[in-house]
Amino acid sequence: MPQFSLSALSAGTLLEAAGMLLLFVGFLFVGSMVLPGRRVAGPELEGKARIYKLNGLALFLVTVTLGVVAQGFGWFSFSVLHTHFAGLFVVANVFALAASVWLYLRGTRGRSASAGDGASFLMGSELNPTCCGVDLKMFSYRPSLIGLAVFNLSFAAVQFETYGRLTLAMTVYQAITFVYVFNYFQFEHGMVHTWDIIAERFGLGLVWGDYVLVPFFYCLSGWWLVDAPDSLPPVAAAGIVLLAAFGFWLFRGANEQKHRFKQDPNVRIWGRQAETLDGRLLVSGFWGIGRHLNYTGE
After folding, report:
1. What is the pLDDT of residues 41-97, one digit of tens each?
2. Which residues contact 226 (CB under 8 A, 6 or more apart)?
3. Positions of E strands within 46-194
4. How far is CA 125 from CA 46, 101, 128, 206, 264, in A?
5. Distance (Å, whole) CA 275 – CA 283
6. Dist. CA 21–CA 34, nearest whole Å
7. How far apart are CA 201 and CA 124, in angstroms?
8. DSSP-derived 3-state class of residue 39
9. Cβ–Cβ contacts within 10 Å for residue 263, how many?
């Protein structure tokens, strides 16, 4: 079983982890600024429609490709992320807290203190803060999901370097999670219409979710698989793949229906005119079977 010990962390290890995190986030931020991408208009927020540059897929592929090439030439090993996992977890929490303080201060600048300041810190004081022309809320999904992907690659690297091969369980896990992240960026245009983007302010809740919850907790299965015995029968692996495919179909299908409805309330879903409650709440397709079946599939 892999070990996770915060007590064994040293100042040097934490400094190394901090440097890695800042380099990673900085690389993605600059990449978000300079890489080309399709521009789409989001819904009107606070009196105007924001234009988003969708280059997340290119950024994801560039990041993974550079890492794999560097690993192949021996310049770098993804295993360093596994080695520094505990340290990165600590500094990511500090980073999320510091970023949330900064967001709170810039959002409440010039405003006197009030009883709602605690809620503003947690839930955010600005809807869509930007820096250097980059929408920070939209951007933060990139270190979140790309961080998850590179952590997963680190687990594969450690297992291969330690045992000389990947187990069937690790191979299945890597394939499923890679498709999940890849497809997120394929569907990045749908994010501009999600509740997170159009309604939730950017505070500690979303920041911590982006920089800690998704990259560090979504990958725990892969972290455990590094030293797990290779006891997954092929028939079980096939069953897992089929279950993942069903969940993915449900997850993406429900999200796609919601996205199409938000773009055109008169859209046809499953061959029929979309039905709604009060013209706003979709009750056709997957959304007529249950609420948020997209989360069930995910």
Report:
1. 887 776 778 889 999 999 999 999 999 999 999 999 999 999 999 999 999 999 999
2. 2, 82, 155, 158, 159, 162, 170
3. 48-54, 130-131, 134-135
4. 13, 11, 9, 12, 31
5. 6
6. 20
7. 5
8. strand
9. 12
- Would strands 272-273 and 276-277 be described as parallel, antiparallel, or unpaired? unpaired
- How many beta carbons lie within 10 A of that of residue 162, not counting itself? 11
Q: What are the backbone dihedrals phi and psi of residue 135, each rounded to the nearest 5 degrees, phi first?
A: -70, 115
What the block records as the tokens of 71 is: 């690993």
pLDDT digits (tens, 9 = 90+) for 213-257: 999 999 999 999 999 988 899 999 999 999 999 999 999 998 888
Residue type, 252: R
**The residue to which tokens 């013209």 are assigned:** 279
Q: What's phi and psi for 98, nearest 5 deg?
A: -65, -40
Q: How do 130-131 and 134-135 pair as beta strands?
A: antiparallel
* Per-residue DSSP letter, 5: -
CB 195 within 8 A of CB 76: no
pLDDT at 4: 65
Could you tell me the end-to-end alpha-carbon distance of the chain, in angstroms, rounded to an integer?
26
Distance of CA 217 to the CA centre of its chain: 11
Q: What is the pTM of this model?
A: 0.91
pLDDT at 236: 95
Helix pair angle (141-163, 168-186), 10° resolution: 160
